[in-house]
Design brief:
Elements (H helix, E strand, L loop, with lengths): L12 H14 L6 H10 L7 H15 L2 H11 L5 H11 L2 E7 L5 E8 L5 E7 L7 E7 L12 H17 L5 E7 L2 E8 L1 E3 L4 E2 L6 E2 L4 H14 L9 H4 L6 H4 L3 H5 L11 H6 L6 H8 L16 H15 L3 H13 L20 E4 L2 E4 L15 E2 L1 H12 L6 H7 L12 E5 L2 E10 L2 E8 L4 E7 L7 H10 L5
Antiparallel strand pairs: 1-2, 2-3, 3-4, 5-6, 5-16, 7-8, 9-12, 10-11, 13-14, 14-15, 15-16
Length: 482
């Protein structure tokens, strides 16, 4: 077989094999299972076309949700490839469909994919270098303008969202509340599913859901209030606010760096958390456990999402105000905003209306109580209702919680994706800010779109991305007129 490239040059044997494999796939070739596995194991790893071949081999194995094919991919391309992780990732996404291949730098192949179960677009990049294992990177990205989903009118967008939620609930993939408000009008406020499966208790509009990382917004507002009052400085350090902090490098991290995830302060979850989960009751408990730990990167030189950084902010709020974190935010954030159903009481306290958390295990929803922290912290884990979160969004924009100048700083891009306690940027071409939250048995999303005067809220007592997909679905279709 003689195959020539676009310049007419005859390809080498290795390059012919790679081109032929890609050609057979493009022609929708289907062989027996054994033949496909053999082809994957023996496919050439190097040469022109091999990067695209590797990308397509991964995509095919991933979409088939087949352990044997993923293991064959691992054995051929990447000895450390996480097969179990990929099988779990498939359960979240439902697989991907190829939107298009993209121009790629030498030694790489790149493509745009869309989740089978949502509008989420991801860019997958593979990099191959002879003598090294394949590097595979998958990153959710903004949908390109030429692939944008057509906008609907207001009634059509709300009806489409409700129908999408109905379908997800019917498949037992969604249990929670959705709220959409525009200006002073609430356009949609509905509940789906069960708050307690054992008791058969339905979700209502008053159900309190765990927020995950949404608490970071409340923490940032509290910090900025103390900055406005002259009691803290964004350039002040951890060591200045927490004298005697155990690690000298972390002691130099500034409050601004904590707010923007630039301090290299790391996470709180992992083996140590699992071992001490029920004894981590205060922010000081977390500092005692993690305080001697050094930075994960030089402070200020990278941005790495850090739950521990926000735990430190909680400890700083307590030391500066003289109040427990929960008391400070109750008095200075929740009360002024009229949020009467929001808090962070421990999990062993009977909170009326608080939903039980359910995580997926072996294909079934099971109680996630054994994974939950003792109580919510400044980094996340509190609870609220959709109505309270709407009150929070309105109080922010009305200048009740922060001055307009402070809010503008908090909700502009301090990093490519984050402000001060708020995720900031464009989604489906719509500029906005807010925050999400997710862990076992909880998923939450708040989007505030000032130009459209629109707030979109979703809360669920199931694993991510059960409600994020629905909020994203509406964001892609909502009308853009002011």
């Amino acid at each position: 077989v003689a195959i020539r490239d676009e310049n007419g040059w005859k390809l080498s044997t290795t390059r012919v094999a790679a081109q032929l494999m890609a050609l057979l796939r493009a022609m929708a070739w289907r062989a027996s299972s054994d033949e496909m596995l053999d082809a994957l194991k023996s496919a050439p790893a190097w040469g022109d076309g091999a990067m695209r071949l590797a990308l397509e081999a991964w995509l095919e194995a991933f979409n088939m949700h087949d352990r044997a094919r993923l293991e064959a991919f691992r054995d051929r391309y990447q000895p450390t490839f996480d097969v179990d992780g990929m099988l779990g990732f498939h359960a979240q996404t439902g697989g991907f469909r190829l939107l298009r291949h993209e121009p790629s730098a030498p030694g790489t192949a790149q493509a745009l994919l869309q989740e089978a179960g949502s509008d989420t677009v991801a860019r997958v990049t593979v990099t191959l270098a002879e003598g090294k294992p394949l590097a595979l990177d998958i990153e959710a990205v903004e949908r390109p303008a030429d692939l944008r989903i057509p906008r609907l009118d207001q009634a059509g967008a709300i009806a489409a969202l409700a129908a999408q939620a109905d379908a997800a609930a019917a498949e037992d993939a969604f249990s929670g509340v959705l709220l959409v408000a525009r200006g002073d009008e609430v356009l949609l406020q509905r509940a789906w599913g069960l708050a307690d499966r054992a008791a058969g208790t339905p979700v209502t509009l008053d159900t309190r859901f765990r927020l995950g990382s949404m608490n970071k917004m409340f923490t940032a507002v509290a910090v900025l209030q103390l900055v406005e009052a002259g009691r803290l400085s964004l350039e002040g350090s951890v060591g200045q606010s927490l004298p005697g902090y155990p690690n000298a490098d972390i002691a130099k991290v500034t409050i601004r760096q904590l707010l923007t995830h630039a301090g290299g302060t790391g996470d709180i979850f992992g083996p140590a958390f699992d071992q001490h989960r029920l004894s981590l009751k205060t922010h000081d408990d977390y500092v005692r456990l993690y305080g001697a730990r050094g930075p994960t990167h030089p402070p200020g030189q990278a941005h790495e999402y850090s739950n521990y950084g926000y735990v430190l902010l909680g400890a700083i709020i307590e030391r500066t105000s003289g109040l427990a974190y929960e008391d400070y935010v109750a008095r200075h954030v929740f009360a002024p905003a009229g949020m009467h159903d929001t808090g962070a009481l421990p999990e062993d306290v009977d909170v009326p209306g608080r939903a039980r958390a359910y995580t997926r295990k072996d294909g079934a929803w099971v109680d996630a109580a054994d994974t939950l922290p003792y109580r919510g912290t400044a980094a996340g884990g509190g609870y609220s209702t959709a109505a309270d979160l709407l009150r929070f969004a309105r109080a922010l924009r009305a200048g009740i919680l922060l001055s307009p100048a402070s809010l503008a700083e908090a909700t502009r891009r301090q990093t490519p994706w984050y402000g001060y306690g708020f995720m900031v940027g464009q989604r489906h071409g719509v500029a906005g800010f807010g925050h999400g939250g997710g862990a076992e048995g909880m998923n939450a999303s708040l989007g505030i779109f000032p130009a459209q005067d629109t707030v979109v809220i979703g809360l669920a007592n199931l694993d991510p991305p059960s409600v994020e997909r629905l909020v994203d679905y509406y964001t892609a279709r909502m009308p853009l007129e002011p």
